[in-house]
Amino acid sequence: MDSDISGFKRYVSTTCKVIKNKMSTYLELAVLSTKDLQRRIKKLSKRQRDYLFQGLVLSVLVLPMISIPFITGGAGARANTKTATGKSLSSISAKQRPTSGPSRGVVRTAVAPQQPAPVPPAPAPVPPPRDPNLPPVLTQNTQNINPVLLKRFDAFRTLIFQRYRVVLEIKSGWRSYQEQAQLYATLPRGRANPPGISQHEFGNAIDYTNFSPTYNQYLGQFGLKAPYRGKENWHIEIVEPH
Ligand SMILES: [Zn+2]
Predict the structure, then answer these.
(1) Which pLDDT tens digit goes with each residue over 28-74?
(2) What's the 136 CA to ligand 1 centre distance in angstroms?
(3) Exposure string (b/e) for 157-193, b if CB count within 10 Å is 16 or more?
(4) Which is the most buried residue in 1, 106, 115, 221, by most CB within 10 A?
(5) C-alpha 232 to ligand 1 mean position (Å)
């Protein structure tokens, strides 16, 4: 037992000595290297020392200052993960962050998904269905026609539609002097009036489609007439009050 304890003590003291020697060696090396460094610095020119000083200042002061916003920015980005631009914006320090300008707009755009979704545009209003007892609205060749004639013709064609389910349209309404002249020159003699005297040129005549003598018997009810009977039965005009 005694020999075991003394052996252990010897082992501990030896280990301690080794550690002590090593520590002193490291200390000596540190002192030596510091002295060596001082010696080397003393050897440097003034310009070289300035560079060294600037380098030290840069690494000790400037680099931490630059890295601080990145560190805090990283935290900000983690806290604000929902904003797409959060990371880049919070990497700028609070003082540098602009209070107004396009970047603010970018933030708003990025936050937009949190706002209620935009209301889709309302569909175009569907026009009410037309009365099935009315013919389709007149759209063909209605320009420059005497409104009284147009109104009477529309009433006439509505009756024809209700009785016979036939739609009457305007085949020819108002004509310019040139159009009448061309028609006069093209059609056989007697089929069209010479230019200057046709009621079409004054908007006072309509040639209608789907002519039938049956339909013409209703013209009088609407203050209309077909003055060229036998020649141009579909040509109608207003009956002038006597
Ligand atoms: Zn005519």
Answers:
(1) 888 888 888 888 878 888 888 888 888 888 888 877 777 777 777 65
(2) 22
(3) bbebbeeeeeebbbebbbbeeeebbebbeeeeeeebb
(4) 106
(5) 7
